[in-house]
Structures are given as C-alpha cells and as structure tokens.
Amino acid sequence: MSALWPWLQPAWRQLQESRRRGQLAHAILLRGRAGFGKGQLVSALVAWLLCDHTATREEACGQCRGCTLLAAGSHPDLLRLAPVEPGKAILIDQVRELEGYFALRPHYGATKIAVLEPADAMNRAAANALLKILEEPPAGALLLLTAERAERLPATVRSRCQQHVLDRGPADKILAWLAQRGGDPGANAEALARAGGSPLRAVEFAEPGLADAIDRLPESMAKVAAGTRHPLSVAAQFSKMPWLVLVDQLLRLCHELLLLKYQLALPLAEAGRRQSADLQRMANELDSGRVAQFVQKALDLKQLKLSSASARESDLAEAVWFDWRSTGQ
Ligand SMILES: [Zn+2]
C-alpha cells in the first residue's frame, strides 16, 4: 500500500501474507510508543479486509459497497470500542457488547472486526471479559487491539494475541522519509533524536522555530516556579508548540533536573548541554517530591489527551503550567 508509512510496511506485508494463507490470528495486538502510526496500520487493515476486492488487491479500492459503507461510518461488520469519556477506562459493559456483535454472522464477507483502541484503557473487569472471548473466539471474529503501554494488559490477554511491535522503525528508512518531506539531513537527524526515534514526532520537531522554543523552556520553567511569571502568560508564549511535544519536553527536563539534583550523569543530548546552566540552577532549588508529583500529573494529562481527541490543547497547556507552578510553592 503506497500511502502507508515505510516503517509500517514489514508488519503490513506480514499481516497480508497471513490473511492470504488463511492464517490471520483471531486477535492482533499492535503495540508501541505514540508517534509510529499504530492507528494508520489499523485503518489500512480494516479498510483492506472490508473491501469487496481483498482477494485480488493489495489495498482497499475505495469504491465498492464495503469501502462505501466504511467511509460512511456504517459498516455492519465493524465495531470500535474506545473510552466513552476522555481519560476514562473501557468498561466491562462495552466489552460485553462484543458478545452480541459476534453472535451474528458477518453481513457481507467472512469477517467481523472489532477494534479496541487503545486496548490498554480497559480496566481489569473489561480485560477479563475480553479474555473469555479470546479463549473461544467466534468464527470469523477479528479483534484488533492497539496499546502504547501493553504491559498494562493482563499477560493472559497478550499471550492470546498475535503481537506486532511498531516502535523500532529503521532509522535510515525514517530519515529517507523525513528527507522527502524537506529539511536538511542534519536538522532531520536532530529532530529524530529529540523525538526519541518516533517519526511522526520528528515531523513536529522539524518545524521551524520549534528547537529554539524547546531551548527556552528551562528559563520559563524557572520563572514560573519562582512566581515571577504567570502560567497563563507562559502558556501563551509556547502556544505554537504542539501539546504532546510540550509535555514530553517538560517530562524530559524533569528527568534531567532530578539527575542533576542528585549529581548523576545527564544524557549527552545536544539540548541538554545547551540548557544545562538554567537546569543546574533550578535543580539546586527544586523540591524533588514536588517534581515527582508534577510528573504524575503531567502523565495523567497525557493519558487524557491520548484517549480523547476533543481535549483542547490550549486548556491542557494552561493546566500543565499551573501544575508546574505548584512545584515552586
Ligand atoms: Zn473496495
């Protein structure tokens, strides 16, 4: 499939090959950090499987009855489960919907698909209900699960899924893909390093001005913690920074602050060296217990954002800066 990102191709070919041999598992778990395109692979697979021409095409045709129903959001052989509210769990009653859904035969092809995204949002009761389905999968059932933190799923659920890990894209393929989008090779390599190897994050990091804005974060953190700048004013200053970049950078800086506080070695990142003077001053003054509390709050906000497209970035940015201010009071 030409539009699929290159680092997803190996998993995509493997899934298609399994399907052609009639060996596609009843449950597939796509796992890996954010920013590698788990959602894109799920969408491509769902579209291909529901297309009327799956047997003869390598990608969905976009025009048949199956493709049209999918595009209209009304394909009867597809059910998506997600948290009903931002930041909440996928609940047992939602998983029980699957029983009735799978009890009916497929309307068109031979497969009925359920997508659980993100599956690691299931609470324990929901996961146990899912386990019952996985233990005796109905004929024609295909469960597609995605998880950024797959270790949250019970081992019994994981072991019944065919697992694909999607966060080890080869750097040369990712850099070639970034080069096609523009930017010089050095800047792309730095963006990829800052993004922790995640291609989609690297695209954000390659935005003009973003690296400079990231370098200014420690100074603003120090001022907010000291009470000399207001959280709302700093949130406005960094309003162009994508929220997930902001929170990941704040988390990275908290990690470095704690290393500095206890005089441990810093990772030798370029950004770390440029920011080290501001960081060292802040590290000397900060209360590590409050920083740890901030880290937990920031991770909770991140979970909220990842499970809800409707959470507004500007609200989240203000929330995270107010949380940061409480480390200094
Ligand atoms: Zn089609």
Which sequence of strands runs across the widest sheet?
Answer: 2-3-4-1-5
Described by the principal axes of the CA atoms, the overall outline is globular
Ions, cofactors and other bound molecules: zinc ion
- CATH homologous superfamily assignment of the largest domain: P-loop containing nucleotide triphosphate hydrolases
Structural class assignment:
alpha/beta
Distance between the termini: 54 Å
Calculate Rg over CA atoms: 22 Å
Q: Which CATH class of the largest domain?
A: Alpha Beta
What is the domain total for the residues?
2
Biggest pleated-sheet summary: 5 strands, parallel
H and E string: HEHHEHEHEHEHHHHHHHHHHH
Mean pLDDT over the full residue set: 88
In CATH, the topology of the largest domain is named Rossmann fold
How many β-strand runs? 5
Helix content: 40-55%
**CATH architecture heading of the largest domain:** 3-Layer(aba) Sandwich
Number of helices: 17
Strand content: 5-15%
Oligomer: single chain
Word description of this protein:
The chain is α/β, with parallel strands linked by helices and 329 residues long. The chain has two domains: 6-165, Rossmann fold; 209-328. It is built from 17 helices and five strands. Helix 8 (185-194) crosses helix 9 (199-205), helix 13 (243-261) crosses helix 15 (276-285) and helix 13 packs antiparallel against helix 16 (288-307). The longest helix is centred in the C-terminal third of the chain and has 20 residues, at 288-307. The model has no long low-confidence stretch (mean pLDDT 88). Zinc ion binds at residues 51-53, 60-61, 63-64, 66-67.
